[in-house]
Amino acid sequence: MSRLAMVNHEVVLAEFVGEKVVFDFPSAVARTDHEVVKAKRVVPTHQMDQDRRVSDFNHGFWLEMRFFRDASPQSTREDEDGNALLFSHSLIRSFKMILQHTSNPGKWRGSKVFITGATGLLGAHLTRALVRQGAEVTALVRDSVPRSIFFSPTQDWSLDKKVSIVHGAIEDFALIERAINEYEIDTVFHLAAQTIVGTANRGPLATFRANIEGTWNVLEACRLHDKKVRRVVIASSDKAYGNLKGKAYDETYPLQGEHPYDVSKSCSDLIARSYYVSYGLPVSITRCGNFFGPGDLNFSRVIPGTVKSILDGQPPEIRSDGTFIRDYIFAEDGAHAYMTLAEAMAGGKFSGEAFNFSYGLKLSVKDVVSKVQQAMGRTDLKPVILNQASNEIPVQTLDNTKAKTVLNWSPRFGFDEGLRATIDWYREKFSS
């Protein structure tokens, strides 16, 4: 199988060999034990249409220059001809990240997609993945937050230059209905929500309006235009299940949230199901673990907060007592999960159904902090336990068997590899 890649301002035709990768390019070579790619020829850059570089490549991908600048940890050695070889964990992770978005080229070309919450962590990664596959994306943007990766000026992002933007709030039904109608939307990903538990505890009414009213606004607008809208994916949460009794939540577990954020997700989840049962709307629901990944600048979350503290040379702070158990999913794996589900919904399949997406982990907050410290080589910094968290579910972990067996979904990164890629991103961001 061949791929085109941009390498150091040159385009190389790369060949994949089995499950291993050897990636050769004009000025250096990167190798890992995971996959092997070999460059076959170099094509002058001027032969490419730069503005359509991804969607026009059959099985193509884009590898940005910044991945080559971040080569730590790295080592050099010589090949059989005495040429210097460069080994970089972060380069290969970045390469693999881009590659996953082009594994099914053509499925999204020309699709008219509406994404709410596009400037959030998952929203930005999903938007980028869809754009790369040729979708015509319209994004709902409430606030222009310059630090959001959605607005990042780097070539790999700059999403505000690649999609249509509708400015407004998810609580504005007339705005949502107009956007879906005028942009002739066929696919909707509803991700917009107030997602921070602490914020929900301080402002439950605003959380209910955004998360519950916002969901029925999207669903009702889709119902009114159901001749155009072919599939709707609603983002619920593992917190919609409420307190866990047993080993893990599966999709049959009752929705019984108790705290403001949890209740808002239980409600939006049930409302989505109601629109399928009552009106036949082609809607499916995702329930995911905690997202993490490049672009998350909410430092009240455990992974961004821990990484930032360590980069600043400070002990990490744990706002709870450190014993809460959580499941996780890397944002790139999350984007792939959402697209896999939407693709499987063709012809009305899986309408009214919910799917868990996660790694099936049981990691305490202390476990996660320890993993970050080990990955960053700063186990000498003793975490500070603040024990300030309230209205939190003690244990949460998801059973993802249904997604794996019914949708044939599987994560492409996993927790450890996603964590390393995330740390690399923070290192680069805060070193520039």
Concise summary:
It is built from twelve helices and 20 strands. By secondary structure, it is of the alpha/beta class. Helix 10 packs across helix 12.
Q: Would you kindly provide a written description of the structure presented here, covering whatever features stand out?
A:
The chain has twelve helices and 20 strands. It has helices at 66-69, 89-100, 121-132, 173-182, 197-202, 204-224, 260-279, 302-311, 331-344, 365-376, 401-406, 415-431; strands spanning 2-7, 10-16, 21-25, 28-32, 37-43, 74-78, 84-88, 112-116, 136-141, 164-167, 187-190, 231-235, 283-288, 290-292, 317-318, 325-326, 328-330, 354-357, 363-364, 384-385. It has a seven-stranded parallel beta sheet, sandwiched between helices. Strands 1-2-5 form a three-stranded antiparallel beta sheet, with no helix packed on it. Strands 3-4 form a two-stranded antiparallel sheet. A hairpin with a 2-residue loop joins strand 1 and strand 2. Helix 4 runs parallel beside helix 6, helix 6 runs parallel beside helix 7 (260-279) and helix 8 (302-311) packs across helix 12. The protein is globular, with a radius of gyration of 22 Å. The model is unreliable at 1-103 (pLDDT under 50).
